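Justification of resources, computational component.

The compute hours requested in this renewal are based largely on the per-chain cost of generating structure records like the one below. Each record pairs the submitted sequence with a full structure-token output. That output is archived, and it is also reused by downstream analysis tasks.
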Amino acid sequence: MQGFFEHQYLTYKKNHIKSLLALAKADDHMHDSEIALLFRIGHKYGLKDWQVQNLLDSVEKFELTVPDNFNDRMNLLYDLLLMVYADGIVEKREIEFCEDVAKRFHMKKEIVPWLLKIFDSGTPPPNDEWVEIKREAHQRFEMI
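The structure output for this chain reads:
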């Protein structure tokens, strides 16, 4: 039997993937590279292949779930940017989606082009740099 906190954390992980799916489906076409990335991120969060596949197979229209804290919001933005670059084509619709996400996260939309430069053609910053980037983003782009 699954306890309350395990269930809550599973819901958080699935919501993270659902938010990524919302972006991936924004252009009405799921690329193989986007699907592969969803499975990699799902594995990173401890989801099983069948759990990710169930989300992929769902006909539900996924909406963005806003994480509770700044750190989780930045980590979702990180994965969203990976998704933007996954198919090798950065589309205006994807950038607008990320800007809308930033707005819903109570961040200035200027964080998106700033992060796009940091990711430089899809190459994410290493974890130690990401910690510093989140700190700087908190100072520069969070709206109070």
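The chain has seven helices and no strands. The radius of gyration is 15 Å.
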